[in-house]
Amino acid sequence: MAKIESIKQYEGNTLDTIFFRPMLTGKSAEQLGIRVLYNVPGTSTLHFWRGNGDVLQKYTTRGWNGGDPSEKFQKKIDLTKVKAEMAYAAEDYFSTVYELIAARPDVNLDDLSGTELEAAETDIFRASIAESIRATMWYGNQDRGEGSLGSFDGLLKKIMHDFSDTEGFHLEGYSKSDKSPEWAERLLKNLWENAPCELQALRSEGQLAYFVTTDVYNAYEECLDNVALEAAYLAKQTGRDGLYFRGIPVIDVQLNGYKNIVNDMPHSFAILTDRRNLALAVNTSDYPGTEVRMWYNPDEMENRQRAIFMAGCDYLLPELMSVGFGLPLITPKWTLEGDTFSFLAGISVADDSVRSLEISVYDSKGALVFDSEPMEIGDGVVSYESDGVSEVATVEYNITYNSNLFIPSCWQQ
Q1: Distances (CA, A) of 104 to 116, 193, 321, 362
Q2: CA 348 to CA 277: how far, in whole Å?
Q3: What angle in degrees, to the nearest 10, is found between the helix axes of 214-225 and 230-238?
Q4: What pLDDT is stored for residue 407 in this prediction?
Q5: 3-state SS string for 325-374
Q6: Where would you tag: which of 90, 224, 226, 365 has the fewest CB atoms within 10 A of its CB?
Q7: Is 132 exposed, middle or buried (0-12, 13-18, 19+ CB in 10 A)?
């Protein structure tokens, strides 16, 4: 047997119980770190209840005064109809499916059929859909073309669109140009200390979390490694199950693999919020045509997979958000021709938030060759030349901006 020709189609109850529900409930949903609304009856709506403060009254007379209803916040999550499709050469598909089940002793490898085959094929397609949903949940932008996380708008686009028009957000910019990893710890500290009081008050409920990119996560872990304690040394040797800042978990959103296709959003960010304030909604039951289909196409000698469903995400309250975006810097370029060192970089920000940029140049031994004077930025471009330089191994830059709050006009990196 060199190909898989059986046809599998999930609709109705089987689409729910076999394909999507294992992916969007239980531990799989917990790994996302936010609320997952799967097949919520009616319109997918994000709810957040707030208490009425002091509800006690003196018991002096009979009867009741009539209490006020609890304050409730709601926000409808706009769902977008999406589709997914994949194609494999028949031999490659057979090898991939075979690899998934070959290690099981209870499978007859001469007869790849039945539930074992169906489960293996389903796992392959389900894993691809789950990863696309996760990445689009953060970096999605419908203004992009197909194949670039453009099926529905993600959380970052909604935050960037709303914060300039909405009171309650705490947003700050940060630079990663420091020579030590302590910038990450300072970032987490600033997000907490400057967070709205409504967000800080929820700390005792155990639902707060930092959602950070890998560069922030790694730099913060390096800070912990540098602590002069035996526990820190052991953790550096054996690794850590997870990172925490003042008891609040730090979650790596793992988006490094999408930097090349996302140029309109920050590649470095950190968000402190309540997990219940963010939600991903997936619906497979409220409209006709939803299905998952897998079949073999003999004309092309390939196995194909297709799925149709609805998905969307959103946040509820801006006062439950404290956000840090990495300062957008177009990748710096430097050259050394003869004894002339040249540096070129571009920064895209608005409101004259960036004041200046300094350059530090080091040789192969780590010795400082020279420090530039603070350079003003004109038209978003910085250029610098210096003569008398014989060797350049490392170039570092330090950005100074006028305030912690800045509005990005176009994120580029």
Answers
A1: 10, 52, 47, 55
A2: 30
A3: 140
A4: 39
A5: EECCECCCEEEEECCEEEEEEEECCCCCCEEEEEEEEECCCCCEEEECCC
A6: 365
A7: middle
In which region does residue 348 sit, left (phi positive, over 0), alpha (psi from -120 to 50) or beta (all else)?
beta
Give the residue among 311, 321, 251, 244 at the shortest CA–CA distance from 280.
311
Q: Which residues pair with 343 in a beta bridge?
A: 334, 384
Q: Measuring CA to CA, how many Å separate 3 from each of 96, 112, 200, 264, 295?
A: 11, 10, 57, 42, 11
DSSP 179: S
CB 292 within 8 A of CB 126: no
Give the integer Cα–Cα distance in Å for 368 and 355: 24
**For residues 126 and 121, what is the distance between their CA atoms, to the nearest angstrom?**
9
**What local confidence, expressed as pLDDT, does residue 391 receive?**
85
Q: Where in the chain is the domain with CATH 2.60.40?
A: 333-401
What's the CA gap between 358 and 372, in Å, rounded?
6
Residue keyed to tokens 């793992």: 254
Low-confidence ranges of the chain (pLDDT < 70): 1-2, 26-30, 41-42, 48-53, 67-72, 102-115, 147, 163-169, 173, 175-179, 229-233, 235-237, 239, 287, 327-331, 347-355, 377-380, 399-413
**Claim: this prediction has a pTM higher than 0.85:** no
Please say whether the beta carbons of 9 and 18 come within 8 A.
no
Count of all residues that appear for the chain in the document: 413
| pLDDT, tens only, 281-317 | 888 877 677 889 988 888 888 889 999 998 999 998 8
Query: What span, in angstroms and rounded, lies between the C-alpha atoms of 71 and 48?
Result: 9
Closest CA to 125 of 371, 337, 293: 293
Question: What does the alpha-carbon distance between residue 105 and residue 56 come to, in Å, rounded to a whole number?
Answer: 64
Report whether 398 contacts 178 (CB < 8 A). yes
The CATH number, out of the four listed (3.30.70, 1.10.155, 2.60.40, 1.10.10), of the domain defined by the range 333-401? 2.60.40
Where in 179-247 does DSSP place strands (E)?
208-212, 243-245
Nearest to 336 by CA among 272, 264, 388, 301: 388
User: Mapping DSSP to helix (H, G, I), strand (E, B) and coil, where does residue 54 land?
Assistant: coil
